[in-house]
Known about the structure:
Elements: E1 20-23, E2 26-29, H1 33-49, H2 60-77, H3 83-87, E3 88-95, H4 104-114, E4 118-133, E5 136-149, E6 154-168, E7 171-181
Amino acid sequence: MRSVDFHYSARTTHCNTAGRFALGGLVMNTKRSWEIWIAVLCLGVLIGTGTVATAQSWDSNQQGVWKAVIDSYKDIEKEDLGWTDKWVMPNASVWGSSPMPRTRDTVKRWDRFNFGRSETLASEYAPASIVVHKDMAVAHYYYSTGDKDEEGKTKVTHGKCTDILVRDNGSWKFIAWNCADQPDD
């Protein structure tokens, strides 16, 4: 499966007590105290207002958008040439590894060329955020894939996507996207 590893390390800072003061129980160095205080306050406001949503707290619209993203990938991984007709608006403009944006028809043409040249052995998609406004949605997420090419060589790719979807007759469909692989190390 695609896997995205997030690493977080907390730092322990050792300071002497000179030049420090307490504000609301928070001890800060006076050189950068107001900058830190404002950053902490802003972070608290963001978390307190619920602007950071996890998948478990998504509303039905956000869940529907994510389901469309995942279901479209299932069709792609099955190498279903009809996936674009099912999931992509006719007037879409999309961009990924190609040198310029593509239409739905050019995506389909390149899929005919590329399908069968490699096999997806594992994939994983990790949502970062989904915003829905009326009949439009933006989904940001990370991806990882493990593929095997015609020669039997395997490659793991990580990257990120931003998808823009519109609701069309009750279904979410892609109107645009931009995906980028992380550079190889």
